[in-house]
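Pyridoxal phosphate homeostasis protein
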Amino acid sequence: MTEETRRDEIAAGLAGVEAQIAEACRASGRTREELTLVAVSKTYPASDVRLLAGLGVRDVGENRDQEAAVKARECAGLGLTWHFVGQLQTNKVRSVAGYADVVHSVDRPRLVAALGQEAVRAGREITCLVQVALDGDPRRGGARPADVAAVADAVAGAPGLRLGGVMAVAPLGEEPGRAFARLREIAQAVREAHPGADVISAGMSGDMSEAVANGATHLRVGTALLGRRKPFVR
C-alpha cells in the first residue's frame, strides 16, 4: 500500500469519526471544542502517527510501553501530546515518564509514588487520570469506586504530577450509557474536592456517542480511525 493510499484511508476514518462526534454533540447540546480526540495507534506504525499528525490530530494514545517509547522517539518534533492508556506496571514507569504527557491508568497509591518520583527525576510534569473499575473488579485495571478519592488525593499531593480527572472503560456486557453515567457522578465528586480535575476520559470506537452524552471530555479511538487491528505478536 502506498503512503498516499494509506493517508486517504486514515482521512476517511477521521472524517467518519468527526461526523459521529458532531452528531453526538448535537444530540447532547455540547460543542466539538469540549472534546479531545485521542487517536489510539497501538499495533500501527509510526508512519500512521505521522499521517494522523498531518491531518491535524495532535493527541496520540498507546497502551504498551515497548511500542510507545519507540514511536514517541520516531515522532519527536511533531508537537504531539502522548497519552499512555494501558495498564501500567511500576517497572515500566521510568520509561513511560520519559515521553507520556498524560497517563490515563493511574489506579493505586504505589503507582502514584513511582510516577511522581520519575516525573521529578525527568524534570517533567505528568497529568494523571484515575482509572475507575466501574464493575468493581480491579483485576482488569482501575481503582474500585470507593478507592478513587484516595488515589486522586495521592496524585494531587505528589510532586511532578497533576490530577487531570478520571478515566474508565465500559464494563463488558453492560450498557455503556449506564456505565458512563456512573463515571460522571464519580468525576463530579473528584472535581468537588479538586476543582481543576475536569477530564473524563471515556468512550472508544463502539461507544463514543454514549460517552459524549455523559460528559466525556476525551475519546480514545483506534479502530474507527485506523481500521481493524491485527493481533499483536511479541
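thats it. The chain has one domain: 3-226. The two ends are 24 Å apart (CA to CA). bye
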